[in-house]
Predict the structure.
Amino acid sequence: MSQESSSPRDRLFNASLFQTASFIDGQWVNAASGETIAVTDPGNGAVIGHVSAMSAAESRKAVDAAQRAFPAWSVMLPQDRAALLRRWFDLVNEAREDLATLMVMEQGKPISEARGEIAYAASFMEFYAEETKRPNIEGVTSHLPDAEVELWREPVGVAALITPWNFPCAMITRKATAALAAGCTVVVHPSKETPFSALALAETARRAGIPPGVFNVVTGEPETVVTPWTDDTRVRALSFTGSTEIGQLLYARSAKTVKRLVLELGGHAPFIVFDDADLDRAVDSAIAAKFATSGQDCLGANRFYVQRGVYKEFCERFAERTAALTVGYGMDDPDIGALMNERAVAKQEAHVADALSKGARCLVGGARHEQGPLFYQPTVLVDVPADALIFQEETFGPVAAIAPFDTEGAILERANDTEYGLIAYMHTIDPRRIFRMSRGLQYGMVAVNRTKVTGAPIPFGGMKQSGLGREGARQGMEAFTDVKYVCRDYGDLTLVE
């Protein structure tokens, strides 16, 4: 019953949240060419709407608007910026059910996960509404006679934010509210597959009273929209979440204008279970780490390594739990929803076929799901060899690959044998091993005996080719600032009698 085709306007309490034009300088703007991009519901294939395909010239107009708005926004009293961000937070919370519904229709995730993402997205608004009031920086005692030394944090200017389809609300608010709190103005390019969440956020920002030009959203083809931003010297910072391949391209293109970069790129997370682990907790955590967002999460566990003493039991229990997962349309709130597109499903098929050809065994799943063309069965592969593609590449789907290991040293080396370094998971009760492994794992984040570790107050980010910089926490706001050093000499400071 939930798969019937309908416009988002028919399902939303507040239909004005469904916008199809870009948001530039406080106005809804359609492409002068009249060109649009169709957006489909991955759960049923229905076209749910069209968004404007903006030109390069129109993309530059968004930068024009952000640049005009920057002087006033950057000097606005922090408490006044904070009040606007807080108002935005309140409006997003009021619209949370509509925003979640819209997300399901364009992204396909289960409705409970969509609601969770809206809460997560809003948490950054609340956090940075507070953080904007305290851009504190350490003091420096003068090393020069008759000189006063001071350090300031200054907003860098216009920030370009390029966001992915898997978390279409949270990845915008995590970036945008940090930049706005720092005093920057922003231009946002959402994925062309999930633009409506971004435009709904723009509508709530407009209602919150965020001034024209401060928050802009430009829809269209990524090459057309983003290239003018990488070339424009007025765009001083660029923040991107997505694949390592695209991140490398943006890194290279931004070099000629020496932009501040924040890159949150691919993951290839190991999930390590030692013999002494609490197996109940480990299996629970493994299910969450693998199958959240239908496996389409850069934090998703991609490589499962289980010490030989508990290997058989873990595989059996994990497979049993996986077989019980429900698959269906997002609004029906299954465990697993649709994958984003045909490329995503084809990758699952390729990785499974490759692993099986090299000796792996399939305990559960292993094929497309009868629910529809973009649904894939939750799958468990065991005895996966080290040279299987799934152990070399990010799968980004509901396929778990498991292999045994024997020693701590061997698994540490294997876990680190990758150019990715976003997050690693491990389960053990030995405090000495926890310390050794936490220090030895070459990852920006390490989760010990749990899965959920993220949130607004923590610095999210990776090592190696998983990214640059951090998002969230105080560091997330600092990424959009420059440190200015002022040294003042007042002349003769001798006391006058």
Q: What stands out?
A: Residues 1-5 have pLDDT under 50 and may be disordered.
